[in-house]
Specification:
The chain is an alpha/beta fold and about 280 residues long. It contains 11 helices and 9 strands.
Length: about 280
């Protein structure tokens, strides 16, 4: 089988399975299998593909056609220009979350150093990205689930070894007592509602429910963290949240109820308010 034929075969398989953006994903898969950019591969499209690669492509196609996440198939995914190791048990980094990194970088622009605390850290993509963009970032990243914590450790070691991975439950009201003096607390908590969980895309059902479900109204983590973690911030420090679509008013109200001021909001690239932040 030639490179071009393999590409066309993958695309047809994904299209038949109803995969959105099948053309783009087939290019990603070919690049993953052969280790070269798609234009270069198709330029030499009549070159034969080793049988072992064809068999590997069949396996990947079969799994992707069953809506298994492409990111898990690859074992890594890009976020803020960095490649993060991921797999089952950890939330897949999404481009929407880059908005949170942008907000933190704006808030801390010009500061010589930043003490950062990331809650519900998952893969560690948020603190790692911030650490590559700002000078002298130190702090900690907290994640409860063991499967996700292993990825957090690996990714922080690669990009931000000065940030300590900590396995712990951010909903434990006693845990904030161990932390103090942070300039910024970031958090992309579980925020899907009960109704959201019943309407998940097939791919999302492979991701850990513990990283998705935020209680009946999706706001459980915002209430608990806003109430308990303000003590870990220094005066004038910021609590910066990612939120779900349409949650900005509720999350802003929660922050105000807990004494935060200077409430700010930021839209993502799709025009959806994706970040809400409050100052202590």
């Amino acid at each position: 089988m030639t490179r071009r034929t393999l590409y066309q075969t993958i695309r047809q398989r994904l299209q038949a399975a109803g995969i959105e953006d099948a053309g783009i994903e087939s290019g990603f898969l070919l690049e993953f299998l052969l280790g070269k950019p798609l234009p270069q591969l198709l330029m030499d499209g009549e070159l034969p593909v080793p049988e072992a690669i064809v068999m590997q492509a069949e396996t990947l196609c079969q799994r992707r056609a069953a809506h298994y996440p492409l990111q898990y198939l690859f074992g890594s995914w890009e976020f803020y220009g960095l490649s993060f190791e991921i797999g089952e048990g950890v939330l897949i980094p999404r481009a929407d979350t880059e908005t949170l990194v942008d907000v933190v970088c704006t808030l801390r622009s010009g500061q010589p150093q930043t003490r950062l605390l990331d809650l519900c850290s998952g893969s560690g993509c948020i603190p790692a990205a911030i650490a590559t963009q700002l000078p002298e970032v130190s702090g900690a990243a907290i994640e409860r689930e063991s499967a996700a914590f292993s990825y957090l450790q690996k990714n922080l070691q690669q990009y931000a070894p000065q940030i300590q991975p900590v396995q712990g439950d951010v909903l434990d009201a006693t845990l904030p007592d161990l932390y103090t003096g942070y300039d910024v607390i970031t958090c992309n908590p579980p925020y899907l509602t009960e109704m959201d969980m019943q309407q998940l895309q097939p791919e999302v059902t492979f991701e850990p429910e513990t990283a998705l479900y935020g209680g009946a109204d999706g706001l459980d983590f915002y209430r608990s963290i806003s109430a308990n973690w303000g003590s870990a911030l220094r005066k004038s420090g910021w609590l910066v949240y990612e939120i779900g679509k349409g949650q900005e008013q509720d999350v802003a109200a929660i922050l105000r109820q807990q004494g935060f001021s200077q409430i700010t909001q930021q839209m993502d690239g799709n025009g959806i308010v994706r970040v809400v932040a409050g100052q202590k």
